[in-house]
Specification:
Blueprint lengths: L3 E4 L2 E2 L11 H19 L3 E5 L1 H10 L1 H12 L3 E5 L12 H19 L5 E3 L9 H8 L3 E5 H5 L3 H7 L15 H7 L3 H8 L2 E2 L5 E5 L1 H12 L12 H18 L2 E5 L7 E2 L3 H6 L7 E2 L1 H15 L3 E3 L1 H7 L4 E2 L17 H5 L2 H24 L3 H13 L15 H24 L11 H16 L8
Parallel strand pairs: 1-9, 1-12, 2-3, 3-4, 4-5, 5-6, 6-8, 7-13
Antiparallel strand pairs: 7-8, 10-11
Helix pairs in contact: 1-3, 2-3, 2-4, 4-5, 4-17, 7-8, 9-11, 10-13, 11-13, 16-17, 16-18, 16-19, 17-18, 18-19
C-alpha cells in the first residue's frame, strides 16, 4: 500500500486584522495562486473554506471561485466544510453551532455544486458535543487536532510538562515535546497514521503541529528567534523521511499541513502571532513557490498526494476511538484553549449580548413559530459570534473593523426581533423581549468597545 500525505490549506476571509476592503486582495493573492499551482502541477490537496469565504469569493472574485469549482470537478481538490461563520464552536450555544454547520454545507453546494463530506473545526476548539453536531449537520468525516488528543493521555502530559490555562494563547513552538515522547511508540503513532472512528460513527483523521509548524516557518522564510537561518528544505525532507519510517510501522498516511491558506501568498497573521508585531497580510509571493516545493518534495520522497476522504476509503478498518471523550473540554490547537477566546475583554463584553439575542429568538419562536424574521435574526446572531472579533488577547487585539462588524450584526439581529414582534402582532408584549431596551444595551457596549485602543492603529 502506498504511503499517502494530505495537505489542507484552510481559508477564513474574516481573519482578525484583515480589513474588509482587502478581502478581495487575499482572494486574488492567496487563494488564486494556490488554485493555479494545484492546476498547473497536477497536485491533489484538500481545501477548507467557511461559507462566508465562499460568499466573498463569489461576490468579489468570481473567477477565483470558478477555478476552485473546476478543480473540485476534476478531482484535484477535495472540498472541506466548516461553519458558515468562523466561530469557536465550543464557545457558542449548540443550536447556533449546528445552524452554522448546516449553512456552511449549504454554501458549498450553492457555490460549487458539491456538498462536502469532510469537516474542519475552526481552531480545533473542543467540546464533547462536537462529534454529534458534525454528524447531525451531515458530515461523515472530521479533521482533528492530534496534539489536544495526545495531551488527554496523562503520561504524555506529564512527560511534556504542557499544561492548559483558560488564558493560554499557544504552546505551538513547544509541541515538539509530544513528538519526542511518541516517536518510538506505535501505540500512539497509529492515531496519526490511521483513520479512527468516534463512538457515534464519525470518521476522524488527525493533524499535528509537530509537522505543520516547521512547514509554516519554511513557508514564511523566517527564523524562530533562536536560530540564525530559516527552516530549510533539507529539514523538511528529513522530517518527511522520518515519518515515512513511522508510517511503515504504524499506518498508511500523515497529514502534515492543515494551516491557514492565507500563508500561501501573504504573511497573514504570522508576525502578530509569533512576534507581537503590527504586520498584517503583507505580500509574500515567495511562499507560493515554497508551498509548491513542499508538494514536490513530498512526491519525490515517495508519498502519494491524497485527500481525507480517499485516505479513509482506502484504509483498513478504522481504529475504534472512544479516547476522544477524554480530550479536554475547552482545548484548542497549538496547545492553547478555546476558552482563551472566551476570556478576552472583547468576548466578555460581546458574548452576554449575543446570548440575550439568542434567548430572544428562542422565546419568540414559542409564540410566533420560526417566522422568516427569526431565521434571519439567527443568521445575524451566528455572524455576531465570529471568533475574529474576539481575538487575540492583549497586548495585541482584533482590528477595530472586526469588532464593528459584530456590533453591526447585533443591531441587525435586534431589529429583526423587533420586526418579528411587530409583524406578529405582539409588539406590546415586551415581557417576552424588548427590542428598544436591547438597542440601548448594544449602543452601550459599542461605546465601550470603540473607546478602546486597537493594536496597530498607532
Amino acid at each position: 500500500m502506498s504511503q499517502k500525505i494530505i495537505f489542507m490549506p484552510h481559508a477564513n476571509i474574516q481573519y482578525s486584522q484583515l480589513d474588509p476592503a482587502r478581502r478581495a486582495w487575499v482572494c486574488e493573492h492567496c487563494y488564486r495562486p494556490l488554485f493555479e499551482l494545484v492546476r498547473d502541477g497536477e497536485y491533489r490537496i484538500a481545501f477548507e473554506a467557511s461559507g462566508r469565504t465562499l460568499e466573498v469569493m463569489a461576490g468579489e472574485t468570481p473567477e477565483v471561485l470558478a477555478l476552485l469549482k473546476e478543480l473540485i470537478a476534476d478531482g484535484r481538490i477535495e472540498p472541506v466544510g466548516s461553519p458558515f461563520i468562523h466561530v469557536m464552536l465550543a464557545n457558542i450555544p449548540p443550536e447556533v453551532a449546528l445552524h452554522s454547520l448546516k449553512r456552511g454545507l449549504d454554501a458549498w453546494e450553492a457555490y460549487t455544486g458539491v456538498r462536502p463530506e469532510t469537516g474542519w473545526n475552526p481552531e480545533c476548539g473542543w467540546a464533547g458535543s462536537l462529534p454529534e453536531l458534525y454528524k447531525e449537520a451531515g458530515f461523515n468525516n472530521l479533521v482533528m487536532d492530534a496534539d489536544s488528543f495526545f495531551l488527554s493521555f496523562p503520561e504524555i502530559r506529564e512527560a511534556t510538562g504542557l499544561a492548559y490555562d483558560v488564558q493560554g494563547h499557544s504552546n505551538k513552538n513547544h509541541l515538539f515535546k509530544i513528538e519526542e515522547y511518541i516517536r518510538n511508540r506505535p501505540e500512539y503513532l497509529r492515531f496519526l497514521t490511521n483513520p479512527s472512528v468516534a463512538p457515534n460513527g464519525l470518521n476522524m483523521i488527525f493533524r499535528s503541529d509537530c509537522m505543520a509548524n516547521p512547514m509554516l516557518w519554511y513557508l514564511m522564510g523566517a527564523t524562530e528567534g533562536c536560530r540564525e537561518t530559516p527552516v530549510g528544505l533539507d529539514e523538511i525532507q528529513s522530517m518527511l523521511e522520518t515519518w515515512r519510517g513511522r508510517i511503515g510501522h504504524s499506518g498508511s498516511f500523515i497529514m502534515p499541513y492543515a494551516e491557514d491558506a492565507e500563508y500561501i501568498g501573504s504573511s497573514a497573521y504570522f508576525y502578530v502571532k509569533q512576534f507581537n508585531q503590527a504586520r498584517f497580510f503583507e505580500p509574500e509571493p515567495g511562499s507560493v513557490t515554497r508551498f509548491r516545493q513542499l508538494l514536490d518534495l513530498a512526491r519525490n520522497t515517495g508519498y502519494e498526494l491524497s485527500t481525507p476522504s480517499d485516505v479513509i476509503a482506502s484504509a483498513a478498518t478504522p481504529i475504534v476511538n472512544d479516547r476522544v471523550d477524554c480530550i479536554e473540554n475547552g482545548a484548542a490547537w497549538h496547545g492553547g484553549t478555546s476558552k482563551a477566546w472566551a476570556n478576552t475583554s472583547y468576548s466578555r463584553i460581546l458574548d452576554p449580548v449575543c446570548r440575550s439575542l439568542y434567548d430572544g429568538v428562542v422565546a419568540l419562536r414559542q409564540m410566533l413559530g420560526n417566522v422568516p424574521e427569526l431565521e434571519e435574526a439567527m443568521n445575524a446572531i451566528e455572524s455576531s459570534y465570529v471568533s475574529d472579533s474576539r481575538w487575540p488577547p492583549l497586548p495585541t487585539s482584533p482590528g477595530r473593523f472586526n469588532v464593528q462588524e459584530t456590533i453591526d450584526d447585533l443591531y441587525a439581529a435586534n431589529d429583526l426581533l423587533g420586526k418579528a414582534m411587530a409583524n406578529g402582532g405582539i409588539a406590546e408584549k415586551r415581557a417576552v423581549y424588548s427590542a428598544p431596551l436591547m438597542k440601548t444595551q448594544i449602543a452601550a457596549i459599542e461605546t465601550l468597545l470603540m473607546k478602546q485602543d486597537y493594536f496597530g492603529e498607532k
